[in-house]
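Task card 7
Instruction: Convert sequence to C-alpha cells.
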Amino acid sequence: MAERVQQPPAKRLCCRPGYSTTCRQGQRAGGTVCGGSGSGQGGSNKTQSPESLLDIAARKVAEKWPFQRVEERFERIPEPVQRRIVYWSFPRSEREICMYSSFNTGGEENASSGENVDETRLPFRRGIALLESGCVDNVLQVGFHLSGTVTEPATQSEPEMVCSVAISFDRCKITSVTCGCGNKDIFYCAHVVALSLYRVRRPEQVKLHLPISETLFQMNRDQLQKFVQYLITVHHTEVLPTAQKLADEILSQNSEINQVHGAPDPTAGASVDDENCWHLDEEQVQEQVKLFLSQGGYHGSGKQLNLLFSKVREMLKMRDSNGARMLTLITEQFMADPRLALWRQQGTTMTDKYRQLWDELGALWMCIVLNPHCKPEQKAAWLRQLKKWNSVDVCPLEDGNHGNELPNLTNALPQGAHGNQDSGTRPHRTVFTRAIEACDLHWQDSHLQHIINDDLYTNYCYHDNTENSLFDSRGWPLWHEHVPTACARVDALRSHGYPREALRLAIAIVNTLRRQQQKQLELFRNHKKDLLHKGVTSITNLEGWVGHPLDPIGTLFSTLMETGRGDEDSLQGGFLDFSASTMSSSKHSELHLFPSTRRFLEEGESYLALAVETALMGLGQQRIMPDGLYAQEKVCRNEEHLIAKLQEVDLDDTLVKIFRKQAVFLLEGGPYSGLGELIYRESVPMHTFAKYLFTCLLPHDAELAYKIALRAMRLPVLESTAPSGDMSRPHHIVSVVPNRYPRWFTLSHIESQQCELASTMLTAAKGDARRLETVLESIQKNIHSSSHIFKLAQDAFKIATLMDSLPDITLLKVSLELGLQVMRMTLSTLNWRRREMVRWLVTCATEVGVYALDSIMQSWFTLFTPTEATSIVATTVMSNSTIVRLHLDCHQQENLASSARTLALQCAMKDPQNCALSALTLCEKDHIAFETAYQIVLDAATTGMSYTQLFTIARYMEHRGYPMRAYKLATLAMAHLNLSYNQDTHPAINDVLWACALSHSLGKNELAAIIPLVVKSVKCATVLSDILRRCTLTTPGMVALHSRRNSGKLMSLDKAPLRQLLDATIGAYINTTHSRLTHISPRHYSEFIEFLSKARETFLMAHDGHIQFTQFIDNLKQIYKGKKKLMMLVRERFG
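Output:
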C-alpha cells in the first residue's frame, strides 16, 4: 500500500455538551496500560480468572458498534467503560493482519507462485522479525489510534532507519495506516505489521489513553492554553502556520469553522455512517494491476495477477467486504487494458495465459454475486457495474473469440450447439454474462435451505420417483438444477467461508448425478435395440461439464477432496443461518470430518471415494466439442488437470470397485456416455481419460480395461461421412474444400492422445498374441495419421526388442504391419520423413526374418517408389551386415539376392532415369541380369534419360571394365547435350572431356565418330580448344587410360576428323568474340585481350591460321572502330 507520512483526517466531530465545568475540574488525563485494571485478555498471569461482565460487554460493543452510536445511546459513559471499549476495538487476530501483508495467509506464496520466494522478505515475516528483535518502541494508544516507531536495522548497503507508524482502527479492523518508510505496495509494510503485532501480542505493554477529545474536555482554560502553546513550541516549524490560520478562523465569527458544532478528533473512533472495513489502498491496487498488465505476461506478471485473484478469494473466505472492492478495482484495470482494443481492431486473439486470467475474473464475480448473505442493494449495485462492463465493445467473449477474429472456412458445416445460426446472430456471451445471469438466482428455496442447513434432512416416506423428485429412493435429498449453476453455488459457499454448507450441497448434487446416471442407463437398455437399429447419435449434452467456464466437476471434486483430507483451512469458519436453528462454528468440531453429513454416503464410502466417482462421471460424459480455439484448448487442459488430480490418489479396493462400476456404466451408457456404443460425430474424444482408466484397471480387471481402451480409440470426426443413420446433421456428408472436417483446432493434440492410448495398449499387450491382434486392428481402423502410426510402429519395435529379453516375435510382426501401413499411406504423398520410414521398415523386416524381407521385395510396388526400392531396400538387403545379422546360408543368400535383382530390374523398367545405375550395381554378379539392366539403359537412353544420368552410367561402365559400352553411352549422352558459347564453367564440361579422352583412347574410328557429336553439341570456344589440344598430343588408340605413351603417328589437323574440330573451334572463337563485344564494358577490356590471345593460339594451329587471324583482327577494327580505347589495346597487342 502507499503509506503516507501525513496523518489521516479525523472521521467525525466530537464534543461533550453534557459535561459541566465543575465536572471537569480536578480530573486529570492519566493513562493506564492496555492490560491494566479490569483487563480480561493479554495478561501474562499463568492462571486465568473468568472474564468480567464489563469485558464481555465491552468486547461485544467494540466488535459491532461504531463509537459514535455508543456516545449517542448513553448520555455519559464512565471512563472505565470507555477504556475497555477502546481496548477491545483493536484487532485480536493475526490472520487478517497476515492477509493484508502477504499474498497468502501463513506465507504460502511459494506454493501458489511456483517460484522460490524468500519468505523472510515478505512484509508479514519481516514484521515478526522486527518485533521479535525489539525494534518496536514508543508505542502509544490514544483512543482508536495507535502510534509508535519501528527501527529498521542497518545493512551493508542501507543505514539504520527509524519509521514513524500510525494506525487507526474501528470495530476490530485496521481502517487506515501511515508509515514514514515511503514504501509503495498493495499490502501493509513490515513496520505496520510490527506495530500491529506488538499491540496484539503485548497489549499489557501499550500505554492506553482515551480519545484526545476526552482528555481536552477534562482541561480548564489555563490548561488548554498551556497545552496548545507547548504543542506549538515543540513543533513550531511544522504546525505554526496551521495554528495561526486556525486561530484566525476561530476568532472570526462568520468563518466556516464556527458554523460547525464540535471539532474533529482523529482518535475518537468511527461515526455511524463510516463503512467498517479493513484499510485497502485502492490507488496502489490499481497501479499494481496496471503495471502487471503492461508487462504483458513477462517478468512473472501473470503469476502476480493470479496471486491477486487468490487474495480476493482469501478475502471472500474471511467474509471481508474488501474482496468485492478489490475485484472491482482489478476489473476496471483489466477493462482499461489498451491491448483489448488493439486485438479487436487487428482481429487477433489474446494470449492463452491472459485469457485464463479473464476466466478467473468472471468466475470470481460469479462467486461474489452468489454470496448467500449478499444484501439486495449490494447485488443491484454489482449488477449495474457488471452490465456496464458487459456492454463495452472490447469486453472479451466467454468462448475466447472476437466474433470475426478468424475467418470461418467451413461455414457449410454446423458449428457446435448453434451450428444453424450465423455467427452474427448468435448471442454474444462475455466473461461477465454468467455473473449477470447469476444475479437472478436466490437462496430462498425451502428445499435448498434444508439441504444446506440440515444434516438430518431426509424423507423416507417420499415415493415420488419422477425425474425431478426431491428425494431418492433412500430418502436422501436431491438438488435438480442446471449442473454448472448448482456447482457455482457450491463454489460460492466455499469461497465465502461456508465449507459445511458447500459439502452438504455438493453431496446432494453428486447423489443427483448418480441417480440420473442410473436412470439414463435403464432408459438406454430399454430402448437399446431401437436406437441401435436407427443409428441415432444425437448428442445429449450440448454443454460439457469438463472444460465448462464454471468448472462444475472441478468444484465438486475439490470440495469433497478437501473434506476427505481433513483440510483445516477449508473446515473452519461459521455457517449459514438460513433457518431459526443456529449452529456451532467451533473449529475443533469440524476436524471430525463432518460426521453427521456422512449419513448421505453409502456404507463404507468416503468423501474421497465420492470425489473420485464424481470426476469419473464428469470425464466420461458424452459432450459436444465447443467452438473456437480457446474453448477447445480449455477442454483438453481441464481434462488433463482433473486426471492429474486423480493420479495423486492411491487406489485401494474401494476405489477399484468404483472404477469398475463407472467403467461398466460408461460402456453401457449409450448416447449419455462418451464411451457408449452410440457416439455423436463431434463428441469430445475419450482418449486421455481412457488411457487413465486403462492404466488403473489393468492390474485388477484386464478384460474391462481393454474394453474401455478399445472403445475409446475411435475418432469419428475424421471419418469422411457421418454414419448412415445420422440425419440430425446431414451437412457432414457434404465435402467442403479445402477442409471437409469441422473446425477442431486441437485435432493434432487429440490425435497424439489417441496415439498415446494405442501405445499404452501395445506395451501392456506384449506377449499376448490375441490382445496384440485386437489392438492392431483398432489402430488400423481408427488412426488416420501416418506419422502417428509410424510412431506406434517404432514404439512396438522398441518394446519387442528390449535388451533384457528375447524379441517378442508377435509384437515385431505388429510393428512390421504398422510400418507397412505407413508405407502404403505415404507412398503417393510428400512426407519429409519418408526416407527415415523406409530405412526403419527394412530394419524391422530384418528383425522379423528373411521371409519378411523377401515379402516386402515381392510387393515393393505397393510400398516403395522405384528409387526407394533400389537405393535403400535392395541395397540394404544385399549388404553384408544384413547377411551377418540373419545368419544366412549360401542358398538363402542366393534366394534373397535373386529377389533383390528382380526388384532392381522391375524398378529400372519403371523408372530408368533414377534406378538404372542401382540396377546395374545390384546385378553385377549375375551376367544375364546385368545384360538385361544394360539393355534397359540403352532402350531408355534415346527418350527418357538425361545426359547427366547417361554420363554417370557411362563412367560406371568404364570403371567396371566395359569401355566400349561406356563409349556407346557417352555418345548417346552427347546427343542430349548443348553447351552455348558462354557456358565455360558448365558442370558437363568434365563429362565431355572424359568422353573425348575415352574415344581417343579407343582409336581413330571412335574419335572420328564422336567429334561430329561434340561439334554439334558444344559451342563454347575454350572447351573446343581444350579438346583439340588434347587430341593433338597423342596418337589415337595408342594411349591407355593411364597416359602410357606409345610411338604412333599423330593425327593431322588438315584431315578429318581434327580438321572439322579445328574449324568449329575457330568459328566458335569468332562468334564468341562478336557476342562479347556487343555488351562489353571497359572493366572487361583486359580480359577480352587475353581471350583474343587464346584465340590466336587456336588460329595458328591451321596452316593458314596467321592470315585468318590477321583478317579477323582487321575486321574487328573496322566493325568496332567506335570503341577507340579497346581498338587501341587490340593494335598494341596484335598490330
